[in-house]
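We modelled the chain as a single entity of 534 amino acids. Its sequence is:
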Amino acid sequence: MPELILGIDGETHRIPFEPGPSVRDILDATDFRVRSGCRGIGACGLCRVRVMEGEAGEPTQNERLHLTLAQLSQGVRLACQVIPRHDMKIEILNPAPPSNWKSSQDAALLHILHEPAVEGRWLPPEINHPCGVAVDLGTTHMCLSLFDLAKGRWLADRWGRNPQQNFGADVITRLAAAAESPGAAREIGRLAVAAIGEALLDIATRDGFDLRRIVNVTVVGNTAMLALLSSRNFELLLQPDYWTRPVVCTPLETSGWVAEWGINPAAEVDVVAPLAGFVGSDLLAGLVSTRFTEGAAPALFIDFGTNSEIALWSGEALWVTASAGGPAFESSGISCGAPAEAGAVFRVRLDEAGCVACQIIGDDRAKGVCGSGLVDLVAYLLDSGRLTSAGKFAGGETNYTFSAGGTELTLTKADVDLLQRAKAAIGVGIRALCGQAGVGMKDLQRVYVGGAFGRYLDVGSAQAIGLLPLVPPETVELAGNTALAGCCDIMLSSLAAERLNQLRSRARLVNLAHYPDFEQVFFENLYLQPLREA
């Protein structure tokens, strides 16, 4: 894979990339963004870099407008106009200020997944090129995508950390904090609203976008996140009686949000209702985007996250459940953990010399290990005999230290325990749904894996430790952020909205708290071994 080579503060950073995006787009997913103000179309002339080595092609017309002949002769180019095919060494001449928001590496998928059908959506005639924003409000991360509603054209996206983590890494902790204090409840909701505003402001300032063009904001998320955002009925989710009942999360008013975000005063804010209990609209959106019930059956869908949600389509019925996987899949709480962003180890392999070799997202300097890298690492330690199926280090060791991109990282027994509990919770959910549907895991025709965790997941490693069923790898689709993709579909397409309603009517909720064999199955799935049939 070719690399973009940067010199930053006397240090060299190597960023691997797939040919196709511009230098600006490659940098936008990293911590080394270049200043910009025109959505990368070459109109602002701000994204200046110097090409030190590599083939950059002939300067474009926009570059000749913004750069002098002397600058061009010295290798100065606009990052948005240079599309590298091979290794390229550059110097960033006009770096962007630090930001909590980055462009998503899944952005290209949004161009493929959508077949907009905007009939039926009211578009204000007085707004030129009205736009909409889809928001996936996750427990750990928040993701947004901006679209031209009239044309169904993708314009920009951002993702960043959910600041509500200050009140707890998992949904139950946040719900309890909100229930104990009205002030905390207001602050938890305010943090989410403010974060959406910050992401929109980043788009406005960086891409030269007029936020007043935004006439719709559509939000999906798990039930707890939507209830906390709307400050409505979140306390009900702490009562077991409501774990199988619908919880109203529709905000009473959104004019304050609209004003804070600086979007069109007449903009509509649609918080897509969850199904029931802890099964949110993020799962429903994922089922919409993958056309889950339209393909071969039986099929399994797992949206990995702090609040993991699982669906099984038998061909006749849609069974769904939520599983408290905890933050391990997001690497939160892992001592060597890092979110799946630039600097995260996402793949662990053995090199020809038998040593651990790590692949790192968007950089050659490791900050930590993300969820998929953690699965790889545990699978490697299990296969090499350094870790037992019970999750204990061999030889009386208490941890395992390895090097990744010049950084020493250490995996502890507590880290392994967190992953074991997370995968055990998923195992219970899969077993319960298969039991309800009368489906054997070996009979599954399709398995969809959603979430940022799933984007980089190695299927073989996941199957080896018992995170995914033992099905032929070609039947497993790593679908990325299906919640955001489905939210975009619902915002853009009346046909997608109809599919959403059909899914609601078909879904049958399974409450794992009432699953009679929960404790036994959970204990069985704590072991690092392939999933077993009931």
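As a brief sanity check on the tokenised model: The first strand starts at residue 3 and ends at 8. Residues 182-207 form the longest helix (26 residues).
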